[in-house]
């Protein structure tokens, strides 16, 4: 996709939807298009996360979320939410209820830092302070657990855009590493790969564009665009204390929100801000952003 395929000049604030969170919204997810799901169309389903969105008896704080593109019951829309105790709650939109809960087998896994659903199975990857876990969310089975040394705690991960079997990890010590899912007879397991790149500061976010490469978001706000082999293509300055980057569906731009409520549209091709979207009624910090498949 060329850099001018999305006309950012047409973008404007359509409406402000005030969810009854009572706390800042820290994550947002749009249901992905999926060939595995039966109609109706779910591409307009948006989920937001802020404080105790799902009211549990002990009011545990939720930390991250993802829609699941694949689920054996095709007429349902399923969302997975991680919490501060390390568990993942599987919620059904059709039933408006919690279907199940994925509980780590260690006493102190730490909160769920990130959760990622595989595109072609009911498997989930969860990131904790003590490592990465691979789950079968439908059977609530933990298939494997890859642990880390304390000095190499992972902060973020992202999957390869063309396969579910490869994903990237951003570490607290600045390493960007690969990990692979190997499928064996009747089960799957995690295999650690190589270190592609080492930054001088922690990596707090990763996005992967099939056309442009791997985008690492450092704690200082700087973005580093890398090749698949880990070579630096370009360094891109970003706003300080910014939200985590969010790629457009085609991977040509990344979106970063700042503390003043502006959304910066950065071209990965040029490394420059194409446009900053602002509105006088939206002046608070942007914590998360996402572009829908229809260019909204």
From TrEMBL:
It comes from Piptocephalis cylindrospora. This is Quinon protein alcohol dehydrogenase-like superfamily. InterPro entries: WD40/YVTN_repeat-like_dom_sf (IPR015943), WD40_repeat_dom_sf (IPR036322). It comes from the Eukaryota.
